[in-house]
Amino acid sequence: MADLVIRGGTVVDGSGAPPRRADVAVQDGRILAVGEDLPRGAEEIDATGRIVTPGFVDIHTHYDGQAVWDSHLAPSAIHGVTTAVMGNCGVGFAPVRPGTEEKLIELMEGVEDIPAPVLSQGLDFRWESFAEYLAVLEQKPRDIDICALVPHAAVRVYVMGERALALESANQGDIAEMRRLVAEAVEAGAFGFSTSRTISHKTLKGDFTPTLRAQEEELAGIADGLRGIGKGFMEFVSDFNQPDPATEFGLIRRVVERSGRPAVFSLTQRHDRTEVWKELLALSNQAAREGVAIRPVFPPRPIGILMGLLGSQNPFSGAPSYKAIAHLPLDQRVAAMRDPEVRARILSEDRFKGSNFPLLARLSFERMFPFGDPPDYTPPKESSIAAQAAREGRRPEEVAYDMLLADDGNSFIFCALTNYADYTLDASAELLRHPNTIVGLSDGGAHVGFISDGSFPSFVLAYWGKQRGIPVEELVRRQTSDTARAAGLPDRGLLKPGLRADINVIDWDALALERPGMLYDLPGGGRRLMQRARGYDATIVAGAVTYRKGEATGALPGKLVRCAA
Fold it and tell me: Which residues form the Amidohydrolase domain (predicted)?
């Protein structure tokens, strides 16, 4: 008798094959059989009228801190993700020399908007090497599996100290030591290496990420370590600015070719250089045709900042008069902001000067919109704050101010940061059509105060499937076997006998995203945005039901996964 049989569902097996009615039997954490009229199991789930998919594999998350203190890795776990790869963007917490822990915390705080007090209370730094960090991660059971990349910033600071923070070039000795550390970490179980080359990644003090100006020689030297052991992949984040996209892509390509290992890079439609994504897509497609494994990872909707009084950012968070009341409880802040004198002062002040958010000055009212319930991720241009202000003969700042106070300060303004240059999702639609691209960039576990993109997996199905009509089998393949293959996880991503029993049972008709809300459950009472979804009847990890109807069952079968090849 099987441990579990999921009976009578529409199986979407992750391969891209058409859906079919079948039962799925599970035994000892593995899929035992997929077929019709299977024998009864010790436990059964009636999946009549439901779709049954593999668990989703998300290759771009930031649970490096949360995985140390938390067994429940929401938001990913509540959106059908059963395996997450963390350590992206070159930031993380190992290796670390005693006495330099705060440097890594400050960087994670600035780059990924995870408050330093939360990290300081949640992390005990019982490790120095990456292997020791993995050992700590292995001790805690979780509701999903996790995989870790070695972050370049941590490695660079470990080897070069203050010289890394000053953005100095590495010497030959530095490179040799970084190569050794990264290879050692991957041998210990890391899935590869990540780095960042974007000016957007800064500490709250404004210091750039230590990896920003790493030379090709340094990157190639580290890549040699992966070539030497024959495993792991590389993850790159870049602005592709200097001196032009093709030159920067050429550097990455040479590093990848030298390593012989696959690589991924983040690709979005920028609003200031709206066509660059097409050039980078063409370059990556050409590389693929020529046998160089470089794949772009793109977001399925605008990467959107939720600005509000509940979160960590709003359009006036740098204004002196707002900063003077920012510490107040929400109701008191709202009352103060409704005072005509306070309103006049805030609206008259420079709202950028005192901000610790480096992107604030780049956010325009032309791409800020009211964020309703249900949430709207594809708002028309006519609903923007700029358009509304023009219709009403008011300044955009006044309209934004009033939006913040709506619903007693519980409302959000949705600001499309990337992927919405022409007020459509045409860029994401085009990227979905290319076999070399990867759906991702959810940043699960990060940007806890103003971005809620851990819901990407649910959005892919609810929007691109239910509203735009892309076949469900392709959307499931994109988030299961495709991402598992990209990460180097051959034992999951398909509903196939012998593979890991990571499974979702989804009520397709009911599937929908809910409005994000704020939780105060991080260490020290820290806050984080959380967005739930309706429609997940069950999520199963290694054969154990971890969530029913979106609620945790208490089962914690998830583990640290170590790279095998």
Answer: 43-547
Give the span between the Cα atoms of 121 and 44, in whole angstroms. Answer: 42
Q: Is residue 9 within 8 Å of residue 505, measured between CB atoms?
A: yes
b (16+ CB within 10 A) / e for 462-488: bbbbeeeebebbebbbbbbbbbbebbb
Does an H or E element contain 517, and which?
A: strand 517-522
Rounded Cα gap, residues 164 and 180, in angstroms: 17
The H or E element containing residue 165 is: helix 162-165
User: What distance in Å separates the CA atoms of residue 65 and residue 60, rounded to the nearest whole number?
Assistant: 15
At how many degrees (to 10) do helices 152-160 and 172-188 cross?
130
Q: What are the phi and psi torsion angles at 447 (to 5°)?
A: 50, 50
Helix, strand or coil for residue 304?
strand
* Cα 329 from chain centroid (whole Å): 29
The 3-state DSSP composition of the chain as helix, strand, coil percent (nearest 5) reads: 35, 20, 40
Count CB-CB contacts under 10 A for residue 433: 9
The radius of gyration of the chain's CA atoms, rounded to the nearest angstrom, is: 23
Q: Kindly report, residue by residue over 372-385, the tens digit of the pLDDT.
A: 889 999 999 999 99
**Residue 518: C-alpha distances to residues 297, 312, 368, 372 (Å):** 28, 11, 20, 15
pLDDT (tens digit per residue) in 229-260: 999 999 999 999 878 999 999 999 999 999 99
